[in-house]
Amino acid sequence: MFLGLDRKDPDRIAVIDDSGEMLTYGELCQASAEFARHLTYRTLIFILADNCNGALIGYLSALSNRVVPLIIGSKTPFETLYEIYQPEFLWLPEDRIGDYGLKEVVYATHGYALVRTGFGTPDMYDDLALLLTTSGSTGSPKLVRHSYRNIEANAENVAKLFGLTAGERAMASLPMYYTMGLSVITSHLYTGATVLLSGRSLLDPVFWKRLKDGATSFTGVPYSFDMLAKLGFFRMSLPDLRIVSQGGGKLTEGMWMQLAGYAERKGIRFIATYGQSECTGRMAYLPADMAKSKICSIGIAEPGGRLSLIDEDGNESFEGEASGEMVYRGENVTLGYATCLEDLLKGDENHGVIRTGDLARRDADGCYYIIGRLNRFVKLYGLRISLDEVEDMIRSRFDTDCYCSGDDGHLDIKLTDSRVADRVPLYIEEKTHLFHQKVRVQVVDSILRNEVGKVIEYEEYR
Amino acid sequence: MSMRSIDDIFCEVFNVEAGALGAGFGKDTVECWDSVRQLALAAAIEEAFDILLDPEDIMGCTSYDAVKQIVTKYGIEL
After folding, report:
1. Is pLDDT at A329 greater than 70 in this prediction?
2. Inter-CA distances, A100 with A45, A73, A80, B56, Å
3. A427: closest CA of chain B, how far (Å)
4. Is the predicted pLDDT of residue A259 greater than 50, yes or no?
5. Does the domain at residues A2-371 carry the CATH identifier 3.40.630.30?
């Protein structure tokens, strides 16, 4: 069974969600067997996931029964995905069935239902296990194709790097449709531990009640820690907390030091990690004892993985001081992308090696530091936003030339038509869900390009 | 500071006209109301009224009415 769930202690609690409902490993296995009685063959489903037991049962049952799910947020607009990938079923909250005019409920449990859409059964590559979007919540049609082994390998590696035991109670509050959120869940279930699944915002008292209810670890993205700090986390007594882990973008040096200092004072571990959805969420980590000496480093490859750098001349190196594009090798490197239904037939295109698109520096001790990006993406508030896509959106909607850049806090847009400047941030919010006050617009006379059309990034425009 | 200021902050953060604000305006009715916006709202209020909200009050900023009530607690007359 997926993650060896049937080999865990059946009486042990596997998951507790915000409703307080607990499910044991035995109950998860039963739920999966029941699911298999209603859906007896391999097909494609969409899971409209909240972080709750019903959604988790859908995920584990699908993976255990060779049904391929695409997991998206329950509030993610998915019309485009639906038209392109034509799932035969949806696994969705029961109270949402009416929203889609669907009628044929095949099976329901724990507030979720399996509903037939009318689409047929697609042909899919035999080893295809799971699909996730690359962008989190924007509903972009570009998907990452995971194999069964990818997910298990990630769970193994992550369990090893954190030294997880069945005694863990992991706070799992990152969304399960987000690769790192899912990685937290699968690695702890793989270990036979307990997942505290929460769909509550960090600004919700319920989240804090759950964190204080014996959580042994918390995993967040940079913005989570800004919020935790604001809400007094660093002054709070959390005697059970043993691990604070971060991924999903770069922390500021200030926040890094605050976390490292906090961990030292409390005698707990602060572990920064690095990953991409193309590699099932995690690829590198900085061992906790180096937190104070290797500030803002992503550390070393996770157990089972290998990092290297390719310099400007195309030479690859695995050790010694160097900088260049970072490359990762490991069993958690996914099969590749899908952009259309036919792509679900594709096999392994990456063969265990991926060029990350991140520029990194390696120090003499073998620790890596991210220093920039080859691919034009920014990570903001857990959203991965393609700058090229945003530019295309703006150009096609407003008929203005534009150029996007960004840092860890803002998306910066330069555009030439002052009349549309006010409308652009709201349009970006509508399309990408990025809060419009995090979009900074500057009107410029022209966007300067070189002879091959590449934008010349001047420090200052007139 | 006057009521207008709170209204301005809400209008800016949630991109609505002042007419949309009122008893029904809150986390459960406003679709885009998430933690990023709630924190931006709290930060803007702290700045506008020169106060520092307790964590519980930041968490409590879940509706238009709740925010008004919280601000009053800090001795701000609306």
Report:
1. yes
2. 15, 15, 14, 38
3. 12
4. yes
5. no
Report DSSP state, residue B26.
B
Query: Do A76 and A137 contact (CB within 8 A), yes or no?
Result: yes
* Contact of A80 with A141, CB cutoff 8 Å: yes
Fold of A380-443: GMP Synthetase; Chain A, domain 3 (3.30.300)
Q: What is the 3-state secondary structure (H, E, C) of A160-196?
A: HHHCCCCCCEEEECCCCCCHHHHHHHHHHHHHCCEEE
Name the pTM for this structure: 0.86
Q: Judge if ipTM > 0.85.
A: no
The alpha-carbon gap from A246 to the nearest alpha carbon of chain B, in Å, equals 18
Residues A113-147: pLDDT tens digits? 999 999 999 999 999 999 999 865 556 789 999 99
Segments of A305-438 assigned E as strands: 305-310, 316-317, 322-330, 336-338, 353-362, 368-373, 377-380, 383-386, 402-406, 411-415
Interface of A with B in 95-114 (CB under 8 A): none
**CB within 8 Å: A204 and B38:** no
Non-local (6+) Cβ contacts of A296 within 8 A are A250, A251, A253, A256, A272, A369
In words, the CATH class of domain B3-73 is mainly alpha
At A460 the pLDDT is: 36
What does pLDDT average to over chain A?
92
